[in-house]
Amino acid sequence: MPLPSHANDRTPDRVKKRPSWLVGRAHATSLGLLVSAFEASGTGLRPFHYRILSALEQWGAESQAALGRDTGIDPSDMTAALVELEAREFVTRRVDPAHKRRNIVTITASGERMLRELDHVIEGVQLTLLAPLDADEQRQFTELLTRILTREK
Amino acid sequence: MPLPSHANDRTPDRVKKRPSWLVGRAHATSLGLLVSAFEASGTGLRPFHYRILSALEQWGAESQAALGRDTGIDPSDMTAALVELEAREFVTRRVDPAHKRRNIVTITASGERMLRELDHVIEGVQLTLLAPLDADEQRQFTELLTRILTREK
DNA sequence: GCCCCAATATTGGTTGTGCCAATATAGTAC
DNA sequence: GTACTATATTGGCACAACCAATATTGGGGC
């Protein structure tokens, strides 16, 4: 359980004011909240399962390789994740008849229900994470982050 | 070399607009820049070495345990890091005569020079990371991040 | 002063994650 | 048809954060 470590410390001034450090700490906080919330949900799933289910819900059935490209998950890790999701009947896998080397992954009705349940879990994390900011500031923060990531002026 | 992975992808909408996801991606970007910059510097040091040297420069000689509390580095990892820093003569360690179980760690003149060199490396990373934002937005971003981390309204 | 507990440094191991290599299989391009 | 590419899977590696066990040493309670 990777809780936000190094929480109440005195960090050198050189370090603690740098955006790269702040972003790293924010990530640790966010990840800690996320993992805790998923654990507390009792679903036995983790954030990357949510990414997979989200991609399937949005783009429909896909091969494992396509799914990996959509979620940034390595093919080898994808195999393991899908075995878990299939065992819990949140997805099904069948060989594509037209392309027999492909596994077509499909989300089940139960998987869609789980996705919606996880939506609430994740929304709760956003609320906690951004609680110190008012609505306007939350929008600003999100917009600035997006700009940094898309590298757009 | 943990470069920012999952860079040019199509991420599910459910995922890609959430602050927790954006923060995670920003962290990956930042970390990639940081590690690359340290590698390119040819110093053979990594970001956590910088944290250690920074703490020593700011608060003076400390025991390893105190240093660990100041930098969020586990005592066992601290030992390994200090062995490296001592081998390169950026710090010295000697047993505290008054408390023989403590190692007093001191930064050397050479270590202080290295610290200043690394300052430039890190400043370059901040410039790259925040390049999409203008000066005002950079200040806003840093302030919002700080508020989130200190949990202050 | 003495005894028990806490602090320190160290070694070694565990866990989780992201990545890569090798392989077997199957489709595609020419 | 041959050579190349894509796919799924297994296994493993590297790295970081963290934890456990140990030996040593001080400090506090009595």
TrEMBL record, chains A, B:
Matching PROSITE patterns: HTH_MARR_2
Cleavable signal peptide: none
Superkingdom, natural source: Bacteria
A Pfam family hit: MarR
Official protein name in the record: MarR family transcriptional regulator
Domain HTH marR-type: 1-150
Organism encoding this protein: Gryllotalpicola koreensis
